[in-house]
Design goal:
There is one protein chain. The protein has 220 residues and is of the alpha+beta class. It has two domains: 144 residues, 3-Layer(aba) Sandwich (NADH Oxidase); 47 residues. It is built from seven helices and four strands. Strands 1-2-4-3 form a four-stranded antiparallel beta sheet, with helices on both faces. The two termini are 28 Å apart.
Length: 220
């Protein structure tokens, strides 16, 4: 499946088969997480991989008694140690950059889990002190997400998404596009006009170009 297909087809799964997940797959998911971008490449994330049933039950209880979490064969808790990020970037690094990095890390993990045929869910509702106590998380480290993972035993429906034209502004907040065809995939003559302008800009910088360049912008 291509990356856009993985993104568009991923769902939050909350019901799992009673089938174990191999450590090879768990490792791949965490490898994907640590490949995420982070401010200064400081990588503030840490992973707590839980496979013990009693530990997972404690995690589920800490997550406001979301008992479905206890049915997952593995739960990965992503935590953030923002100490180094704060040293480099101050309060903004601690309160924003480190959180952004962990969010990117978590999304990577969800996407790779889906690509491997697994189901997962990003859980952010938890009682932090209870989760700390259950997993022995030190005070300077903050939990960011609980991710139950397993083979899905449900197929969640496609969620409703806002139309792109309701979300995109042009150059300034609140300024809509003059022609929504540009962002709704109905390119037609509008796209060809933009392509022609692009060709002229490239030719101005690099000369008349090659046959390959002409072929790229050839009207079909």
């Amino acid at each position: 499946m291509d990356i856009l297909g993985v993104i568009k087809n991923r769902r939050s799964v909350r019901k799992f088969l009673d089938v174990p997940v191999s450590w090879d797959l768990i490792g791949l998911i965490m490898e994907a997480g640590k490949a995420a971008p982070s401010a200064g490449n400081l990588q503030p994330w840490k992973f707590i991989a839980c496979t013990d049933e009693s530990v997972i039950k404690q995690v589920a209880t800490a997550c406001l008694q979301q008992n479905w979490i206890a049915t997952a064969p593995v739960v990965i808790v992503v935590v953030c140690d923002a100490t180094t990020t704060k040293q480099h970037y101050g309060v903004r690094g601690e309160k924003l950059y480190s959180i952004q990095g962990c969010a990117a890390c978590i999304e990577n993990m969800l996407l790779v889990a889906h690509s491997l045929g697994l189901g997962a869910c990003w859980v952010g509702a938890f009682e932090e002190i209870m989760l700390r106590n259950a997993l022995g998380i030190p005070e300077e480290v903050r939990p960011q997400a609980v991710i139950p993972i397993g083979y899905p035993d449900e197929k969640p429906p496609e969620p409703v998404e806002f139309p792109l034209e309701n979300l995109v502004y042009h150059n300034k907040f609140g300024a809509g596009f003059r022609d929504l065809n540009v962002i709704t995939k109905q390119y037609g003559d509008v796209w060809r006009d933009w392509a022609k302008k692009g060709r002229k800009a490239v030719q101005k910088k690099f000369g008349k170009g090659t046959k390959k360049l002409k072929k790229l912008f050839k009207r079909k």
